[in-house]
């Protein structure tokens, strides 16, 4: 049973999501913040990668599988319907949960602007 808990990590999409989030953090630190290799925060990159592996990959991947069952078919109209359903039903939830997760990683309390 214990091995099934983390079985989602074997999914290639989850590995890709975690890796992309990590690469994005490295690009951010090196090209945007211009930290250099000595001041690069490996801990921050590891935190960001864990968000990709344990939140972005499984949650978004599962949502898109559900979305494929909700909106069937192919072509432009199905793609537009999927985008509309995604934006109305999922994007705000995902953004809120992601903001809460990031806030907790940095030791802050998330309070959405009202």
UniProtKB/TrEMBL annotation:
Keywords: Membrane, Transmembrane, Transmembrane helix. It is found in: Membrane. The keyword Transit peptide does not apply. It is a multi-pass membrane protein. One of its GO terms (biological process) is regulation of mitochondrial DNA metabolic process. Coiled coil: none annotated. The chain crosses the membrane at residues 45-64, 90-110. InterPro entries: Mpv17_PMP22. The keyword Transmembrane helix applies. Its main location: membrane. GO terms for molecular function: channel activity. GO terms for cellular component: membrane; mitochondrion. Belongs to the peroxisomal membrane protein PXMP2/4 family. This is Mitochondrial inner membrane protein Mpv17. The lineage of its organism: Eukaryota, Metazoa, Chordata, Craniata, Vertebrata.
């Amino acid at each position: 049973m214990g091995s099934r808990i983390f079985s989602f990590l074997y999914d290639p999409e989850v590995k890709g999501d975690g890796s992309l989030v990590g690469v994005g953090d490295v690009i951010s630190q090196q090209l945007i913040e211009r930290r250099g290799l000595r001041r690069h925060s490996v801990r921050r990159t590891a935190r960001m990668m864990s968000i990709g592996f344990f939140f972005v990959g499984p949650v978004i991947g599962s949502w898109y599988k559900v979305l494929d069952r909700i909106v069937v078919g192919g072509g432009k109209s199905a793609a537009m319907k999927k985008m509309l359903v995604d934006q109305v039903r999922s994007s705000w939830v995902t953004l809120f949960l992601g903001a809460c997760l990031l806030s907790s990683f940095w030791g802050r309390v998330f309070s959405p602007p009202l």
